[in-house]
Amino acid sequence: MKADIGHLKICYIGGGSRNWAWVLLQDLGFENDIKGTVDLYDLKNEAAQDNAIIGNRLMAEHNPGQWTFKANPSLQDALMGSDFVFISILPGDFEEMAVDVHAPEQYGIYQSVGDTVGPGGLVRAMRTIPQFQKIAQAIKTWAPDAWVLNYTNPMTICTRTLYREFPGIKAFGCCHEVFHTQELLRTVLEEAKVIPENTVKRDAIKTRVLGINHFTWMDRATYKNIDIFPYYQAFVAQYGETGFEKPGPLTWRNDYFSCAERVKMDLFRRYGCIACAGDRHLAEFCPHSWYMHSPEQVQTWMYSLTPVSFRIEKREQLERKARAYREGTEKMEPVASGEEGIRIMKALLGLEDIVTNVNLPNQGQMPDFPGGAVVETNALFSRDRIQPLVSDGLPVDIRSLVMPHVYSQEGIVEATFERDREKAFRVFSHDLSIQTLSLKDARKLFDDMTTKTLHGQWEN
Amino acid sequence: MKADIGHLKICYIGGGSRNWAWVLLQDLGFENDIKGTVDLYDLKNEAAQDNAIIGNRLMAEHNPGQWTFKANPSLQDALMGSDFVFISILPGDFEEMAVDVHAPEQYGIYQSVGDTVGPGGLVRAMRTIPQFQKIAQAIKTWAPDAWVLNYTNPMTICTRTLYREFPGIKAFGCCHEVFHTQELLRTVLEEAKVIPENTVKRDAIKTRVLGINHFTWMDRATYKNIDIFPYYQAFVAQYGETGFEKPGPLTWRNDYFSCAERVKMDLFRRYGCIACAGDRHLAEFCPHSWYMHSPEQVQTWMYSLTPVSFRIEKREQLERKARAYREGTEKMEPVASGEEGIRIMKALLGLEDIVTNVNLPNQGQMPDFPGGAVVETNALFSRDRIQPLVSDGLPVDIRSLVMPHVYSQEGIVEATFERDREKAFRVFSHDLSIQTLSLKDARKLFDDMTTKTLHGQWEN
Amino acid sequence: MKADIGHLKICYIGGGSRNWAWVLLQDLGFENDIKGTVDLYDLKNEAAQDNAIIGNRLMAEHNPGQWTFKANPSLQDALMGSDFVFISILPGDFEEMAVDVHAPEQYGIYQSVGDTVGPGGLVRAMRTIPQFQKIAQAIKTWAPDAWVLNYTNPMTICTRTLYREFPGIKAFGCCHEVFHTQELLRTVLEEAKVIPENTVKRDAIKTRVLGINHFTWMDRATYKNIDIFPYYQAFVAQYGETGFEKPGPLTWRNDYFSCAERVKMDLFRRYGCIACAGDRHLAEFCPHSWYMHSPEQVQTWMYSLTPVSFRIEKREQLERKARAYREGTEKMEPVASGEEGIRIMKALLGLEDIVTNVNLPNQGQMPDFPGGAVVETNALFSRDRIQPLVSDGLPVDIRSLVMPHVYSQEGIVEATFERDREKAFRVFSHDLSIQTLSLKDARKLFDDMTTKTLHGQWEN
Amino acid sequence: MKADIGHLKICYIGGGSRNWAWVLLQDLGFENDIKGTVDLYDLKNEAAQDNAIIGNRLMAEHNPGQWTFKANPSLQDALMGSDFVFISILPGDFEEMAVDVHAPEQYGIYQSVGDTVGPGGLVRAMRTIPQFQKIAQAIKTWAPDAWVLNYTNPMTICTRTLYREFPGIKAFGCCHEVFHTQELLRTVLEEAKVIPENTVKRDAIKTRVLGINHFTWMDRATYKNIDIFPYYQAFVAQYGETGFEKPGPLTWRNDYFSCAERVKMDLFRRYGCIACAGDRHLAEFCPHSWYMHSPEQVQTWMYSLTPVSFRIEKREQLERKARAYREGTEKMEPVASGEEGIRIMKALLGLEDIVTNVNLPNQGQMPDFPGGAVVETNALFSRDRIQPLVSDGLPVDIRSLVMPHVYSQEGIVEATFERDREKAFRVFSHDLSIQTLSLKDARKLFDDMTTKTLHGQWEN
Which of A101, A258, B23, C275 has a 20 to 30 A CA-CA distance from A90? Predict the structure, then answer.
């Protein structure tokens, strides 16, 4: 790695994003250890241009001379010479996502997110994989030595695709779901008066993470010399039925991303390990009869189904905000997001070692999982290397809950690489939620969804 | 192995059986290459005594001087000095089996057999494993070098238990479901006029077998230099909708063990490999919406749900027959069963090598399956050794269909070894068919079934 | 596989061979189950032309209408449409082989064969691998679905190269060293009066074979229900010191390929397993102090160092014979070679299943060996498939004797694929026999050998 | 883990040690984060009593109230309730070690240390393994949940024995050889003026460590964002021939533990990775012709053969010192040793996470090494857990240099567990240095060494 910390180049694929790209801009507002340029590449170049303007203005005001942003309509150009590549794209538009999430409702299948597993996750995978194959080829050609941070969902499948298409890639997937569980565990200790409020950093909560993205588990969680498990057990005993929410304006009743942790606590009560993702993610991986057979049941478990209409609305808000930022009527301020992208870059540059959770092909870190399948575990990030930590594997009962998804993900990747529609349908038909349908209905749903959402991606 | 082919000793655990034990008696009626004694051990010693009388009479008339049978009420005595151990026990009685099969019907879960997977298979496993642990300990103590042939279901779980309890055991599981598929493939060639009728032996149909017992698949099937797959494809095209049955008195309408192969053909049409077990077994491993959501759907697919009342009735017939045999009012005749138990013994004695399918812990024969899990593949049987053949593994889509059962079986074995009722319930709750129930109903069903069928086995 | 047993096409690479090609011709003289054409391809096309003339004449006289032979100067043409490809080439000429074998003698390193391991084997590998890379590419392009039988040494390395260059290849390595040991074991039983002389076929001696080519071991050897090991033990007790040779004109004193089995018996006495290759091969894999530190010691162990002068002389004889055959002054007669090439082809065509020993990449058959390394074990050959048999692995002490060669072979293959001369030297310097030299001498020897024998192969 | 950081109990097996035990005492002189008692157990209880007196006096003067030491003649008593167990025993006495090291000299085999590999290492293993089996049993019975730190050599074999005897043990092996290489790399950066002298801490040099104890390698070494490899390359170019030693009184000419790094630099020049142990260790793992065929050659490479007479002399000095400490005529002062024992304990207690190198059974951290074999790699130490980091494996040429020792170690462990003297000899005879002997001489040496050093250990 030839990176010069004074002249880094980052290529951001999906650089018109109003979400992850802004997170990066805002975090860079504080960043002084490293500097350089960010090439924003996006199919919608104007969106990238907005972000370049916004970013450069933020830098001028808050962190002058450190980072410059440029919308670059050429992927080749944006990639060449890059030390890091970020990927956060939206595979398809919201109309397609509406199909992912809502088409299955006609058959009684509800989905709280619809981007990871289930009918939505699988069909989204089918249109995302071809795009990630192209991205992997571009990286192979123009920036083979760059470190690649993926933020796009379905995380497991995107990461798997990058490696299957270009085995030499230095890619990994970043997700913050585990962080939120660390925050919850901090709260657990605060509630138990073990630590004072608002004093302990999120990453002082040490955890052993294992599983797959959005269905990740902890079999160890400690703070200093304290085992958090007994405290979590007491917490679950207290709040398992009533749910738990921190005081504040956002609750599961008014915020689609909030939950009262009831699913998570129920899984702990039964399995003895801490499931570490938002309840709306966890619920999707379980038999739908447990937490999601109807919108009413979802309410009982005190979380929400995220409708795509909400995403559309939120998108419009963000676009308005983008316009205001671009035109200068509003100002983007640096905000520490709590995300680790920049810390990870700095670790890979050698500036500090960190151990955190990451999505990578299984090369031994999950001894009981198939080799090559993408798993989420802890890893050490150090200069120009990531080394996953060998875990003990999941308990046999959790393994039996997680594994069907692993094989489903492996299957949809292979079917899509082969552009084999029938194989894709077979994998689709095995999904937990689809299994409840007759094959005829499963087929109708599959045809309906793929017809409406696969526009040409399968043709190349 | 010190076996002397002129003075062999076989220990038959479950020696009062009116099924597999009689098959052995009848097959031994033709056997002249090896001779010896058979100790019949059974918890119901009188049943073993009947079989000893029957067997000795058959020998006297048809194969004098070759084999003698003795009911032996001491397991230690029966095992000591044995060269071979057969195990075919009925884990529990028919009342318990009635619970296995029919209790779930109250929740809309139908089972065609109920002894392998699903609620019936899992609860049966919970009461069988403790018995097999005891058998494994007895073999370890009194006949550690004997070859052990298991015929008891759930096959996978019984074999797994033997090895987990006594890792040095020389055990394997035998099942004839694959043979019946070989017979079907022979018929396919006969129908296609590729071979004349009734001329080709069953085992001239060469197959590559892989998967798990009762959900085994063939990715190769040949007769001499002929690939059978294209013929099978044509056969499926012709009979897939109408079903196929050989002319004769037994049809799926009057015989619980018959089927019209529609499930098997449907799986081929979709997956491209030949599922090789009876349809009533195959259907249980699939999402129940496909072939078994209701008795009516089962009819459509032209096979039957086997009620335990039928088994009870059949049992009574067999007991009447046993009495008649014992009292000499009827005579048992030697019949070539088509089973391979004796051929396998002879192969293990060195008299001829054979390659056939067998259930064994995975030690590399299924590279994509977890190590140690019991799988069914081909193996070479030669003097004092069995060597499984390395396969290419299952296609990714079939793997995703089979694997949930593998992890479920691994889970129920561990839970039962640990006598951990909660873990057993968790595994139970993941079963394909149980997933459709609410957790509350799943729990009620589990409690109901285990209360009625686990009598003391979990206490030791 | 589309092969038609009445119109097969074989491509023979190295078709001018006076050794393996003649074996094939002579064996085909008896063959009636299959027929077709053999395209003989050789860099020396005239030699192939001779063989075509010889073969066609033999067929005309002994097996008319079955097989036709044709020298084909185009590899593409020879490969296209082939069902089988035989490879038996001489990598380099005898001058180069003289360097392989004799150059190390200046440093006190003697080699009995010099084509498998040791300085000779490694340098031979360095010039063979590039040729096999080209062959693999040609097969990939023109006959990707053909079965490929390799007879060329170094067997392990040639087979490894084929798979590394073209992972989808259907290749395997055939070697008769194990057969000779089966013959020896038959003699052991004859000597012990267990079987009458000359009645039992070689392949009735059933063995479990494991290890690597030319350093293969048996941990089981049986004839019918008889364990041969105790008889072999008695045999070794009797002949271990004096040596054993069957009566006949050829002895280790006048025939370079003969031996008195002393090395083999010594290894059995010490390790308890039967080493199954000629002594001259076995000795090369062991520390040279054991059986080969000097020509005198070799004599003591009653086998020979094969000088290349002998090979040259033999070659000249064969060329004279070839001329005589071609000109018709002498006639080639069909001779049953005892080789299995034709039986294997017939097995792969589906005409009969056989279990025999074969060289294949490790895919689980040797659980204690690195994956992908080429190992020699038993395998089942059936229509269009080879399935290795899973073995128990080698005992830990034999493993420690064999493994350094496995890593050495893996190393020289990688170094040659990368055309990395320094890496090749490092691997060379680790060889058992080279280790006794100073690094300076090792380097001089390496430079000397490679300068004289690598003519352009490393340039492409 | 129930450890209370204010009331820890440490059991020190070999508590009379004047080496590692003193290191612990001196380090504890600075330790305030944790406190408790240390039970010193030693076969020579008086030596432990000395150390208790010395330790308690040091604490009274420098760190009052933190740690108390007690000689405990009962192993059971010393172990019960322990949170940590240290093991640093001398397997046998110096007379036996003299045999290990010097007996082979009569056959021209020199050893620089003689406690890890080679004849000395293997015979030492044979008498150490039985002792470690007993220790493992004691820990299993009396302190199964304690963390066990082993310092005894042969490190690999001791650690392997602990796990083979008690698979549930929480043991690992600590060695400081890698630390010294980190110090060398710091010097390299200092020499290159990249960092100022004496400013950077040893563990700021980040390395990726892989291999086996005393033959460990680094394929990455960085300081902050600086890759150290190019600087090391320049360093080797400059000092490879002349050797390098830091200014100071100790040089390889007067100190047996010093070296001029020529072996290490030569290995780098040839293999491209940094071997990270003292030269006297590295040299023993290589073919003896390279660095150790004679005492003169050893001189050329600027390191020393450590004679046992020196150890005896040093021992006597230490005993005199112990007497002086005990009697109060001299005072032990706290000294920061640079060892990591206490940091590791604190990490396992949860007080800070650290990543360092450690010896553990391979569970995936070295994907190209046999499972279960003890390897040295990096691992994360956190509260009550150690997770090794998955490495990329060794380059193929280094692997071929290291692996023979791995198989040798696996072999000697199995042979000793089975108390199979012949198997032990076979493994012994495969050792690099022994291979140069005739089998007869190898046997004489083996018999001589084992007769003189195995006193009863093999009898139980």
Answer: A258
